[in-house]
Amino acid sequence: MVNYQPFLSKDTSLLKTSEIRDLLKLTEGREVISLAGGLPDPTTFPAEDIRRIADDVIKEESAQALQYSTTSGVLSFKKELVNLSKMRGISSISEDNIFVTVGSQEALFMIFNIFIDKGDYVAVENPSYLAALNILRARQPNFIGIDVDPKNGTNLDQLETKLRQMKQENKKIKMFYVIPTAQNPAGTTMKLEDRKRLLELASQYDFIIMEDDAYGFLVFEGDSPAPLKALDKEGRVIYTSTFSKILSPGLRLGWVVAETDVIKEMEIYKQNVDLHTPTLSQYIAREAIKRGVIMNNLPKVKNTYIEKRNVMLQAIEENFPKEAKWSRPVGGMFVFAWLPKGIDTTKMLEKSMANGVAYVPGSSFYYDYSGKNTMRLNFSYPSKEQLRRGIETLGKVIKEELSAS
Amino acid sequence: MVNYQPFLSKDTSLLKTSEIRDLLKLTEGREVISLAGGLPDPTTFPAEDIRRIADDVIKEESAQALQYSTTSGVLSFKKELVNLSKMRGISSISEDNIFVTVGSQEALFMIFNIFIDKGDYVAVENPSYLAALNILRARQPNFIGIDVDPKNGTNLDQLETKLRQMKQENKKIKMFYVIPTAQNPAGTTMKLEDRKRLLELASQYDFIIMEDDAYGFLVFEGDSPAPLKALDKEGRVIYTSTFSKILSPGLRLGWVVAETDVIKEMEIYKQNVDLHTPTLSQYIAREAIKRGVIMNNLPKVKNTYIEKRNVMLQAIEENFPKEAKWSRPVGGMFVFAWLPKGIDTTKMLEKSMANGVAYVPGSSFYYDYSGKNTMRLNFSYPSKEQLRRGIETLGKVIKEELSAS
């Protein structure tokens, strides 16, 4: 049989498998409470509405809904995405500013490939979204890490200092990948004045912002602040969001709001990747916006998640050592914990799994694999009972680890 | 406003927009008979079956069908794909040899990125599938063109001569991208003895074969020969096919059959691109295989296309100049025509469009943009009446062009 190793391209060696997914495999078929995943609670899917919509669109529009469609997205869906984006405060855009993708993952994949060359300076929050970091790593940029503080969020003072230093060295940050709302994994949300300041820095130091608003519609405590794109006067922000958290991840739908110049580049790129996003998914989501299914369903999603978050936070309060810190996210699906410095959560994982609880070691979310004492805990998928028992067990494991060190 | 040009990555300049898609835009909103597209006839979609299936899977399996799923594909779907692949003669495989993609386009995108480096030698049929060539062009390989003769098909004598020459120069072809059945665009089908010979050459000269079997289930005249993968004893063949022609392009589903080493690389790559293929599409296609919808619908698809092909061939016979040659495809959706040498079909297109007929100039399908006298004509989408009128008009345009030159 042929050995494929000598045939692989050089790029292939740069690809990292997602630690989360490898980890999920370890839990398959075992009696483990997984706080490691990132799945929405399936009871939040408006399944009956989706069923009725699927039925209608296939009955009434099969010649279009089951056919090939255009690369940038189905026009009638893009029009509804203009409306949906407006509900996030993004106005003065048309369907020409919209691009439909296979989940926001594909949006990140395309944008990082379209813009980032080997050696480019790319700023990321530290920690940041693992799957985005993995795409970036394959582009071989120079990472500039911007710390995220559990209390004060993304450290813009640090960003400004670095920008000033780099300017003196004649270096430039090309792009800042940022998750301003319900940051994944750190759980922080950027204040409005910080958002404005970030845009000013982008203008002053001439960089692009890739804004990941995956949880923008999923803020369950207080108001969801306007995304950077809503405040963007120079067209510097490329915005992406997803239907995975507000309708159904199984449709694999994300969208981008950006200047038409960016949309054109995405169109050329996506012709190579997969020609277009599934048409049927787009027709279903179009109707879900149009018929109010998404907005009507949001209160249920938010209620489910705030209750589960509260259960998790209370259990952490009761079971984690006093020296630990953790986020109190106003949205999203995760709590992030900073344990006492001596603890290595990657090493501790095996013991935790043996005790029946899985989590994601936080270092995977750091571009430099620091944050060895951190962990990401999912509250959206497990039941409340599992959350309580899982955190209780995890608390014991941590305390044992502490007294052993 | 920000100017995005200075921010683009170097790779972005290598991307070519698909000529077919640009062309389709020109026909939008005009009274043009388009022989340029590549759309299936929507009357062949088993819409009512798909509607019932969608209804059932959302009703009975919404917690899974609307949820995230694994990167390589939904397990129960992969099992059905093993069965479907067997109907193409590919046996002794398991679900571990299957990988589900967003159309076979994504399979080609991933495989070419996983294997091809700048400067690698890649053999392609000349002409070959435009969208595959565009992905390859972005990888900057050295192309080795293998001529396709309207009568004798892909010229394996030429391939062998080149392989021998290159061996003397210490060079190696890494991969041969080939469409053995109902070749797109040339319409030829490789004979069984040639298939065996190609596999022997691959073994002797140690290269990989990327087999595109998009039309394997769509052979409407005679039997469909076994794909290379069915004859592959060394695991050298990476096979891809698609649901776009046998069920619905709007689901955007393709699949790969390959050695598990290849599947593993694809899994890592796809985690970056889009995490996984839409779950709902996979559940629908799974049931379509299981319930026999695909196999029961195939006779209708084949009948529709053989009738349309016959209409097109007869119209060409009656209207094209005697000096022209054209394919007589036993499957697929296209006729390819070689016009007298003096004619440049790219230049002629404007006149043809002014007369109300669009086609794709053939040079786009040649890696070296030769074949300036060729054109690809689609018979699957236009009505029979449109086919007759379109070819009649096109014949006049060609004859005018001939007498002018």
From TrEMBL, chains A, B:
Its cofactor is pyridoxal 5'-phosphate. SUPFAM superfamilies: PLP-dependent transferases. InterPro entries: Aminotransferase_I/II_large, Class-I_PLP-dep_aminotransf, PyrdxlP-dep_Trfase, PyrdxlP-dep_Trfase_major, PyrdxlP-dep_Trfase_small. Keywords: Aminotransferase, Pyridoxal phosphate, Transferase. One of its GO terms (molecular function) is transaminase activity. Belongs to the class-I pyridoxal-phosphate-dependent aminotransferase family. This is Aromatic-amino-acid aminotransferase 1. The lineage of its organism: Archaea, Thermoproteota, Thermoprotei, Sulfolobales, Sulfolobaceae.
